[in-house]
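An instance as discussed:

___
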Amino acid sequence: MKKNIAIIMGGYSSEYKISLLSGNVVYNTLDKDIYNAYRVHIFKDKWVFVNDMDEEFPIDKNDFSVLVNETKINFDCVFNAIHGSPGEDGYMQAYFELLDMPQTSCSMYQSALTYNKRDLLSTLKPYGIKTAESYPLNQGDIIDENAIVAKVGLPCFVKANKAGSSFGISKVYKKEELKEAIENSFKEDNEIIIEQFLDGVEVSVGVINYKGETVVLPITEIVSENDFFDYEAKYLGKSQEITPARISEDYATKVRIEAKRVYEILKMKGFSRSEFIFKNDEPYLLEVNTVPGLTKNSILPKQADEAGISLKDLFGNAIEDAMTI
């Protein structure tokens, strides 16, 4: 009997358009001989199942079911394709845990922790995971530009603490530019993190649970045409994403070990994509994404393809893995 799979997409953050692209790729890729796939749009003002004629049917939030032409549809598993809130910050995970419904991303705590850059880096530092010097700032705090520069130096990055796809991020070269950059980040989140600039090779490493094993996927080298790997570089073709990365075997071994350690220290499951920059021949962790882009041109699917894993197998494995836990 086919399993009913709800593919949740959309979300409450600036990343919702990217999420819709990812979710539709999953919808079009899943093996229809095994799964009945349903597109479910999650927005602040509505949760709806959207059929192929773009008709909308409200989701019953009491049990995450949907009534279609007087037939109630219950779901066997949820495929999470929401980038940002509420799919990557723990809220949807907590909701589905309460309903005892399997879902493909990591658990509530891991989602909330990895989405919060400041908390994530603080948690991993005692394990020896190297990170850039940083300066935290909350909305309403006194902004001391001299203290910021003394801690992280210039240039530096000003980032929204809980945001993805490079929304709310600026590279700052002068102390006088800090205030505007901070205001820009506060448009995305009421917490920000200001980080030291690390000048080195940037790589992205996918780690997944595949057929019961933790698998580190081939490494991708990020070469941005812009000043850094910003939104344009990620989604508008202003970068080279080279898989496998053009790095030495020594670098590759080091970063594979660190990416796997991060995955296992945090007791992750599902997909993850960690970003690193090499400094003094050592990988420094920037962030961890738990619902990475899933289009054919996204980094993690390209890495899976390089490893000989098709999109159909990648997505199907995520569902089967979620349903066996």
